């Protein structure tokens, strides 16, 4: 018999550089509230947080917004070339990643509903 274990937020946050409550405030913060959510967090930790957030598909934008508060050197110390790219991304308007979107590739859409027969 297969045992199923419940997944909690702590499972995903084991390598997060900030406590879960801080992570929640940062990811939910609107642009004007972000500075207050990051207040008191050292730049090195903010840089690690920016890279950690950007590395997850559902928190890309939050990672870019946190990266705005970091200097290029801090991001590069944390993530090397990727940190530099993240710094550059944070200095221009955010564009959501296009992966996973269906861009007129000429493919037929897949339906799990079955074929429709005209009556």
Overview of this structure, please?
The protein has 119 residues and is mainly α. It has a domain at 18-90. It is built from 6 helices and no strands. Helix 4 (43-54) packs antiparallel against helix 5 and helix 4 (43-54) packs across helix 6. The longest helix has 19 residues, at 72-90. The chain starts with 8 loop residues before the first helix and ends in a 29-residue tail after the last helix. The mean pLDDT is 82.
Quick summary:
With 119 residues, the protein is mainly α. It has six helices and no strands.
- Characterize the overall form: extended
- Class derived from helix and strand content: mainly alpha
Mean pLDDT value: 82
Unreliable runs: none
How many helices?
A: 6
Q: Characterize the main sheet.
A: none
Beta-strand percent range = under 5%
Helix content: 40-55%
Order of helices and strands: HHHHHH
- Compute the number of strand runs: 0
Alpha-carbon Rg, integer = 19 Å
Distance between the termini: 47 Å
Key traits:
119 residues, mainly alpha, extended
Walk me through the topology.
Blueprint: H1 9-12, H2 20-28, H3 31-38, H4 43-54, H5 60-67, H6 72-90
Helix pairs in contact: 4-5, 4-6, 5-6
């Amino acid at each position: 018999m297969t045992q199923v274990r419940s997944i909690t937020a702590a499972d995903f946050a084991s390598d997060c550089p900030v406590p879960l409550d801080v992570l929640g405030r940062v990811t939910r913060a609107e642009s004007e509230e972000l500075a207050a959510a990051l207040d008191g967090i050292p730049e090195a930790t903010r840089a690690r947080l920016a890279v950690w957030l950007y590395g997850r598909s559902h928190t890309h934008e939050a990672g870019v917004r946190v990266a705005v508060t970091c200097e290029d050197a801090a991001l590069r110390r944390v993530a090397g070339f990727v940190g530099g790219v993240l710094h550059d991304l944070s200095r221009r308007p955010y564009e959501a990643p296009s992966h996973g979107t269906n861009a007129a590739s000429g493919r037929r859409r897949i339906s799990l509903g079955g074929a429709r027969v005209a009556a």
